[in-house]
Design brief:
With 183 residues, this protein is an alpha/beta fold. 39% of the residues lie in helices and 21% in strands. The chain contains 4 helices and 7 strands; from the N terminus they run αβααββββαββ. The chain has helices spanning 3-13, 31-60, 69-93, 147-152, and strands at residues 27-29, 95-97, 114-119, 124-130, 141-143, 160-165, 168-178. The strands form 2 sheets. It has a 5-stranded mixed sheet. A hairpin with a 2-residue loop joins strand 6 (160-165) and strand 7 (168-178). Mean pLDDT is 88; it is low at 1-13.
């Protein structure tokens, strides 16, 4: 298989650059993350895909498809939408919804915890441990499989943990642990 064909196949599989779920693990998600993915899936199925199908159908009726930009772009967009639908369906099928509010009031770190910690150099960071499909590092949401999350998990407020980094070992002091309150 040539490289172009391989890239086309990768695009159609729709992994969308998402990290793989570790073998033997479940796809842990917060209820909010699960709802966002479900909403995206329903929008793709109920709104986006029908709109593109209508455009492709209209473009196909205009004759020569080989030079018809609306047709070519529409077919490409349809493949992208179908790939994303497959991806979301697979991820949601593997989803294990974990409500972090069950740990409300606890000072021990588990999935869903928001943790404020200090590095050896005195820098403070605040992160929330989320699912693989919910990560947003620029907004402090890290995946439960990330090195930082793994180092923090099961520790308690006031503990020091060791994080292995490419530059060596770094000690993190846990300053605060919080969870969303139950609704």
């Amino acid at each position: 298989m040539n490289q172009t064909a391989q890239n086309d196949q990768d695009d159609e599989d729709g992994d969308f650059g998402a990290p793989p779920i570790p073998a033997g693990s479940k796809n842990y998600m917060t209820p909010q993350g699960h709802q966002r993915m479900k909403d995206e899936l329903l929008k793709l199925i109920d709104v986006d895909r029908p709109e593109v199908v209508q455009i492709v159908s209209w473009a196909a009726s205009n004759g020569d498809r080989s030079e018809n930009g609306d047709y070519i772009y529409g077919k490409r967009r349809l493949r992208q939408i179908d790939g994303r639908i497959r991806f979301l369906t697979k991820r949601l099928d593997l989803a294990e919804i974990v409500d972090p509010s069950i740990h409300y009031g606890s000072d021990q770190i588990f999935f869903g915890a928001t943790v404020r910690y200090e590095t050896q150099s005195g820098d403070e960071h605040t992160v929330t441990i989320t699912g693989i499909d919910e990560l947003d590092p620029l907004n402090g949401k890290i995946s439960w499989i990330s090195p930082v999350a793994r180092a923090l998990t099961k520790a308690r407020e006031g503990d020091s943990v060791v994080l292995r980094t490419p530059g060596g070992l770094e000690e993190l002091l846990i300053l605060e642990v919080s969870y969303p309150s139950p609704t």
